[in-house]
């Protein structure tokens, strides 16, 4: 007791918790933290602790905790009750280097915060990118329209405008996305990696003449249209395989793996380099940007080709419709091609009410996927729309509304931080870019209901993220060579991040 008091005394400066707590509001499916003109909860920046001390940050469903911090020591006397999970860290066995965690700037994700007052807008972006927020490290930017736009459009909707005389950014960019990107960059706690993704080129450049439905780029490699598509700055085609579905409801442009390979080899790759973008060294050209089901075929066609391989930095994957293909495909392609895999889109829908205010279940689904993808060589995870409205929109595509980590109220006098926001923060604030995943014994500790994933941070700290989806407390019995053993209570229905130096 005396010892722990002394230790706490030594730690006093970092123990002064300046964080503003959650202002809770309860809905049938759970709790949100309310932000308004006067209040918005924060999370303290992380500070190192002396050798032997572990900081434990906990969020839970039933106790309504959000990033509540406590301290514990290796070799301590704590003996919590519950099923024991033995995990031994292997600090010298390191896996993939992480790019980080983040979210996406669709039109909807900028239009919704755009309705907030300047003070609340700042609070929203501090919550995502700031030092007193989740410290996101990734930002995905839609290039022109997507399903989460209020209308179908492109940057040049004048038919057959081969000279691109009418090419222009739109009000969604000028008044919303660009100012908010600048704000996020100003507030960011770390160097954020921004990347773009194109849903559809101008409709007149497609075989079917509309932004949605089944259609590919007109003509073929070497044609004026393919040159134009490249000039428009298309970096990655979002969900290229959707462009072969006749009824596909929103912006798309079909590419087979072979078409994307030819586009990279004949157009995008050489011309990016000619323009001074040294891909893949200083500019990360990514392929696919679609579900895991396509990973095998696309990497086989594009990365196994020695010429296109040279231009590509990594493979972008989405989380939809992929259950039939095991995540071990990511381990295989990383081992084979030595290029990163980045998850570039995930989103949840609660049910008939797509938003599900306060839903813990949505957040657990994110925790599960981030844990299992990172345990299978994936280097980062990007959520879809950062912020949506009370109906999960706006979207022009009909019936595609989703939930999001921040929901903006109808009159924009409040916004709500969903449990999903805290789930993301349990990763993003801790698993910063440059972290390496650390091996453990057992290799995949836990089950799909209780998982433990460890990382070595570039500042030398070790961070561990766990979740417990079970209705009872569990015990994490963690052993670290040269540090000792620590028995940690992992609360029922909780998310946890641990940090020690
Ligand atoms: C915990 O005990 C182990 C084994 O006795 C020892 O090597 C380690 O230094 C101890 N850790 C701390 C923080 O005292
Ligand atoms: C779209 O699909 C329909 C039905 O399969 C087909 O007849 C048509 O040629 C396709 N259109 C394009 C532009 O690929
Ligand atoms: C790319 O990186 C190299 C060294 O890593 C540097 O010399 C070069 O100037 C960079 N090019 C650009 C366009 O940033
Ligand atoms: C992968 O390619 C094979 C052979 O071309 C094809 O039969 C299969 O349908 C493709 N798989 C997917 C998921 O597209
Ligand atoms: C909210 O989203 C719904 C569904 O897409 C849309 O109909 C509505 O216009 C949006 N409202 C606002 C204020 O953005
Ligand atoms: C915790 O782990 C240590 C080291 O692996 C082991 O000796 C100990 O028996 C474990 N404790 C429990 C309760 O399983």
From TrEMBL:
Highest rank taxon of the organism: Eukaryota
Domain Glycosyl hydrolase family 30 TIM-barrel: 100-431
Domain Glycosyl hydrolase family 30 beta sandwich: 434-498
GO molecular function, one term: glucosylceramidase activity
Pfam families recorded: Glyco_hydro_30 (PF02055), Glyco_hydro_30C (PF17189)
Keywords: Glycosidase, Hydrolase, Lipid metabolism, Signal, Sphingolipid metabolism
GO cellular component, one term: membrane
Range of residues in the leader sequence: 1-18
Alphabetical GO biological process terms: glucosylceramide catabolic process
Enzyme class label: hydrolase
EC number: 3.2.1.45
Catalytic reaction(s) noted: a beta-D-glucosyl-(1<->1')-N-acylsphing-4-enine + H2O = an N-acylsphing-4-enine + D-glucose
InterPro entries: GH (IPR017853), GH30_C (IPR033452), Glyco_hydro_30 (IPR001139), Glyco_hydro_30_TIM-barrel (IPR033453), Glyco_hydro_b (IPR013780)
PANTHER family named in the record: GLUCOSYLCERAMIDASE, LYSOSOMAL ACID GLUCOSYLCERAMIDASE
Family indicated by similarity: Belongs to the glycosyl hydrolase 30 family.
Record protein name field: Glucosylceramidase
Species per Swiss-Prot/TrEMBL record: Folsomia candida (Springtail)
